[in-house]
Amino acid sequence: MKLKIYLSLTVLLATLTFAQEKKKEKAKFNQELATSLGADQYGMKAYTIVMLTTGSTKVEDKTKMGELMKGHMTNIGKLADEGKIVVAGPFLEKNKENYRGMFIFNTKSKEEAEQWVKTDPAVQAGVFSYEIFPWYGSAALPLYLKHHEEISKENP
């Protein structure tokens, strides 16, 4: 019995050690992928973050607000399809800065990001305003979008 337990523990320990060593292995560098994503030597690149805030316009008409939000979502999809936006989403809690949501745009140009955010019907209507910030993050960030459709049953 003791031998059986000892052997089981030995196998378990060897398996855990192998799994830990496997995790430590560095992925092979892929120059072609790095170049295609615009990565620097650290695998990073510049983006622009747009923080959406509550705008000055209050829309009381629920039908009109629904149309604006539908246009907002359609515009996000269009920008994502064009490779301009890599992250978009609302904040789930109120915050002291009154941020409502954010976009991460695939550009280092604040001016270009502003042109793109101004295509949003909710921004145009004044429901949302925005702040723009340069940001430095993983050049692989846009790759998650191609998998999003595989894991979502519905679009909002």
TrEMBL record:
<feature type="signal peptide">
    <location>
        <begin position="1"/>
        <end position="19"/>
    </location>
</feature>
<dbReference type="InterPro" id="IPR005545">
    <property type="entry name" value="YCII"/>
</dbReference>
<keyword id="KW-0732">Signal</keyword>
<dbReference type="Pfam" id="PF03795">
    <property type="entry name" value="YCII"/>
</dbReference>
<feature type="domain" description="YCII-related">
    <location>
        <begin position="60"/>
        <end position="135"/>
    </location>
</feature>
<protein>
    <submittedName>
        <fullName>YciI family protein</fullName>
    </submittedName>
</protein>
<comment type="similarity">
    <text>Belongs to the YciI family.</text>
</comment>
<dbReference type="InterPro" id="IPR011008">
    <property type="entry name" value="Dimeric_a/b-barrel"/>
</dbReference>
